[in-house]
Fold this protein.
Amino acid sequence: MDDQELIRHIGELADQERQLEERHTLEGLSTEEKADLDRLEVTLDQLWDLLRQRRALRAAGRDPDDAHERSGDTVERYWQ
């Protein structure tokens, strides 16, 4: 997946996340929808991490395709 595809996918998932957040605020979410929201948040964190890796590798003169998706457990433990 190249940078443009990552950015496009991040945008699509962010839209889905926003819709679920709005529903959560207005009418509440079902258990399934809450699980979907949790999965979306982790997936977004993974994609942002992958994009940052690609950019860092490129900036260092290396191949951005050497970046790899890290596990949800890994990206969720990063300090913000």
